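<purpose> Linking amino acid order to shape
<body> The protein record starts here
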Amino acid sequence: MPMTNKEQTGKASASRAAKVLRDPSASAAAKSAAGSTLTQRGTQVEQTSRAAATQASHILRDPSATAREKSAAASALTQRANRR
């Protein structure tokens, strides 16, 4: 059974995620991770979905992903529900 995760997106991560969303060359996976990251700004209620976590994982393994994209992806994965 998944346990809740109390992580929140910080100001710097939210800023980087917003820049990814505005970047016309960012991939759909990067934008998915960035959107998930921004959704969790200032709240402990929202958590990263399985689909968004999968997209974030792909971004982290993509050698062509930018540092900004990887930051948003890492933040999204940090906020995935803890598993036991």
In short: The mean pLDDT is 81. The longest helix spans residues 11-22.
